[in-house]
Amino acid sequence: MESNRQRKVAQIIQEDFAELFRKQSAESKQSFLVSVSDVKISPDLGVAKVYLSIFPQEFRASIMKEIEENKAQYRNFLGQKMAKQVRVIPHLNFYLDTALDDVEKIEKELRGEGDNPVL
After folding, report:
1. Which end of the chain is more exposed for a tag (fewer CB within 10 A), N or C?
2. What is the DSSP code (8-state) at residue 34?
């Protein structure tokens, strides 16, 4: 069960990264969207799991690779934003959130458009 403190810190992280990724995608030459779908933080506030949705799909691998390579810079950015609010800046783990893809696949199967062997 998440404490109020965990929820507040997770919300701050989500908002800060949403703004950062929005600016980065606006400045990019390529047309893509990175949204922060969820942030989970450990009880000791030492580790944050950041779940990202990236559209279109063909950019996912390259963007996730770039984010992983720049993890230290993202943590530094977070430190500048949260310096007065927490004692320790959490370590960041980024994950690709594919929940919307799963929903789309299920809807397609239900409409009979997928490769369901039963139908």
Report:
1. N
2. E
Q: Could you give the C-alpha distances from 93 to 16, 46, 64, 117, in angstroms and in order?
A: 15, 11, 11, 37
pTM of this prediction?
0.83
Digit-by-digit pLDDT tens for the chain (119 residues) are 888 999 999 999 999 999 999 998 888 888 888 999 999 999 999 999 999 998 888 888 999 999 999 999 999 999 999 888 888 899 999 999 887 777 777 887 787 776 666 55
How far apart are alpha carbons 89 and 74 in whole angstroms? 11
Q: b vs e for 5-40, b when ≥16 Cβ sit within 10 Å of the residue's Cβ?
A: ebeebbebbbebbbebbeeebeeeeeebebbbbebe
Residue that is written with structure tokens 């969207």 in the block: 33
- 113: its two tokens: 């458009």
**51, HSE (Cβ side, Cα atoms, 13 Å):** 11
